[in-house]
Amino acid sequence: MIEFNKSQKQIQMAVRSFAKGEFEKDRVLELDRTGEYPAQVHAKAAELGFIGIHYPETYSGGGMGFVDQALVAEELCAADSSFGITLSMAGYGAECILRFGSDEQKETFLPSVAEGRILCGAAFTEPGNGYDITRLSCVAVQKNGNYVIQGKKTGVVNGLNAGFYIVLCQTDLFAKPFTDGASLFIVEADREGLIVEKTGERLSLNMMTSASITFDNVEVPMANLIGEPGKGYGYVQKFLAESRILAAAQALGVARGAYERAMFHIRNREQFSRPIGQFQAVRHKIADMATHIASARLFTYTTAMAFDQGYRDPATASMAKMASCRAAMAVTDEAVQLLGGYGYMREYEVEHFYRDAKMIEVRDGNQYLHKDIIAESEIGKIREPKRP
Length: 388
Fold this sequence. Notes:
The chain is α+β, with helices and mostly antiparallel strands. The chain has three domains: 6-114, Acyl-CoA dehydrogenase/oxidase, N-terminal domain (Butyryl-Coa Dehydrogenase, subunit A, domain 1); 120-231, Butyryl-CoA Dehydrogenase, subunit A, domain 2 (Beta Barrel); 234-379, Butyryl-CoA Dehydrogenase, subunit A, domain 3 (Up-down Bundle), CATH 1.20.140. The protein has helices at 6-22, 25-34, 39-47, 66-79, 81-88, 95-100, 103-114, 232-268, 280-308, 314-339, 350-362, 367-379; strands at residues 120-123, 139-143, 146-157, 164-170, 182-188, 194-198, 210-221, 225-226, 270-271, 274-275. A four-stranded mixed sheet has the order 1-4-5-8. A four-stranded antiparallel sheet has the order 2-3-7-6, with no helix packed on it. β9 (270-271) and β10 form a beta hairpin. The longest helix has 37 residues, at 232-268.
């Protein structure tokens, strides 16, 4: 059993209270249809300290740990999957500054994210390469004391609304291995030569935009380089491991939200003069759903607690994300099934929990990428057997 301390329980209750007052069902459905960002709700969430709760207080954060961030994400997503994922991704990529940036970079960019004044977007992937960021065609070269960036990125989270981006570029074309020549930059959205284009309608989460970005000789100062040159690939891998634990918490919240709605339905829906929750087939479905959620919770928070204690293993993060996403997909699927025809109706909500669960599953690497990460870690531990 995972036991939270008093402060963490207070965070849970505060987020639940906020979501109950701000997450209007009709508003969620309308924003998802129009693709409009929930700016007012975002501003209120930031005012209450739910954005950047894991940032130090020096940078307008809450000074809390990763477990606290995971709790916020879970509770937001359980209240509504679309609002929850969108709000908990408001600073997507800014952890690269938090973990690897200079004091000046942290002072310049982190408070604006935590205070809800700006969104961050991460530009790592490129057209045709999927999640393979070992081959970069987006390059940054030094010129007159600045870096000039040329190339294209795709699948940029918060792409249309971000005030700045975290961009992975190749700075050494002759590095061996190639990944040793990748560097990470902060690129403000108002830089000349930056062209941002919407990538189209998605199955869900249209209020959290995704974009393609073209860098047409975009100049950034040397001070916008994050950490050391040539270390960008390693920084991104560490960030993605952290982000995958957050995704696990989001998936856990989505599963819980769908489960709670399904429970309400089976307790109130009657067939043959009794609640359908009394039928064994339904009860067995509920048992499976509850087990999926309990397993996901245990894995997610065990991993988050280990992260706070300094154990930051990419394979374990992939395990947590994969386990929680499997739980979310299974639970939301059963929730739709339990509601029957109502499960397909937007006003009963479980259908968009189902769609949003899939979005989390494919973000930050699909299950096959995670299996590769896990397998590589596990097989690497195998030693040659001793021969007689």
